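Homework-ish question, so no full write-ups if that breaks the rules, but can someone show me the predicted structure for this set?
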Amino acid sequence: MSGLKQTPLVERHQQLGAKMVEFAGWYMPVQYKGIIVEHQTVRTIAGLFDLGHMGQLEIRGPDALAFLQYVTPNDVSRLSAGEAQYSMLLYPSGGVVDDILVYYHPSGDRYFVVVNAANTEKDVEWLQEQKERRSDFRVEVTDVSSRTGMLAIQGPMAETILQRLTPSDLSAVEYFHAIEAEVASVPAMVARTGYTGEDGFELYCAIESVIVLWDRLLEAGTPHGMLPIGLGARDTLRLEACLPLYGNELSPEITPLEAGLSWVVKFDKGDFIGREALLRQKSEGVPRKLVGFKMVERGGVPRSHCEVQVEGNTVGFVTSGTTSPTLRENIGLALISREYAGIGRPLDVVIRGRPVRAEQVKTPFYKRTR
Amino acid sequence: MVQVERGLRYTRTHEWVKVEGDIATVGVSDFAQSELGDITYLELPQPGTQVKQGEPMGVIESVKAASDIYSPVSGEVIEANQAIVDAPEKVNQSPYGEAWLVKIRLSDPAEVEKLMDAAAYEQFLAEEAAAHS
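A: Not a homework solution, just the prediction itself:
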């Protein structure tokens, strides 16, 4: 696995018995004990994730806000210091460069943007291009990925476990809010965000501190039954919760309106890249819709790129599919022509050349009860 | 460490076969189940199906991936393990025991000699691991 990037935790993962794979140019754990047991542990107790592959950018300068308003469709002006927002970078076509998390840093002196591992370089280039095209923006975009460690602790016990390591009151941190805190004496930004459908936190720290933070979190969580979680369960968790994955539900060829993420697009906030195309798509009617389905016939597990048919005609494709560890059913998301969308309506998913019957269901597939 | 059961023959695609008379019992190896992870779906050939050595005869799927099952020998399928189709997770728990997949009546018993024995398969796994590290 030479030539792959590694996080500082690679030896920890190997000691924990992880199966390592290539993901987005990184050498990452796909599973430790098994996807299903890891998945269920996050749903019932808590799990610890190394997210060192994710990218982080800092946006500074007097025009940082105006710049972010221009390059993202969500309304960054609504953020107070210490708040986070799900957003995107869009092409003028309305297609997606990347889906991102924008934090107004708790210090109030910068924005902190978390991007997908596979897209980090592309995003930085894209942002630099936009900046050069609009030289009136006094803004500085810095890729801080290589000096930033990122971990997540997710699950119903996440707050209890993390609270043991920090003097800051975590119960006061609301969903999509972040604070600066010392965790195991390590200065970190602690955000109540995640990608699992559970309560939990994402932690950012200096890359030099990520090993000690991981060790202390694992020590604190293990007595509760917490486990380290690989990318395999990260994917099944996010899919049950219907959180989009770039490259699957989002791409340069798929707009946020088609992906059911119109809430991210604030047309009334002023100009932004992609606005015109999305306005046009909205007024003309969105041609495709992302729908959830479950297989109602035996025939295999739906996977991304499987063709979707209605009465023998191609109407779209599967964006993501798996066996749901929570529901114990084969589920998926598909991007289909709007006229065939509707809860309860049938679809055929072509698995190994054979149309297998599925039924559209309400999404998300899983929603936590509290 | 993955288990390689003695007395069985193995394919390079990680199926095992146990021969008794002219009947071959077929399954997938501990290495195969461990690589696939949590197995959730199996598609096996029906009794009466003619299968050929080295050709796909079924499908095994885990949460993360799908993979073909190749027939280690040629012949006629005389039994498919329905219990395992209904509980595919048993392939993870007992790949050499309860989780046999099909029984095949051999049409050419000499084919079995082309397959690896346990020692050769262990060697093959070691070489594969070295090639991927």
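Now go work out the reasoning yourself. Hint: Chain A touches chain B at residues 1, 19, 30-31, 34-36, 232, 235-236, 300-301, 303, 322-323, 325, 330, 352 (CB under 8 Å).
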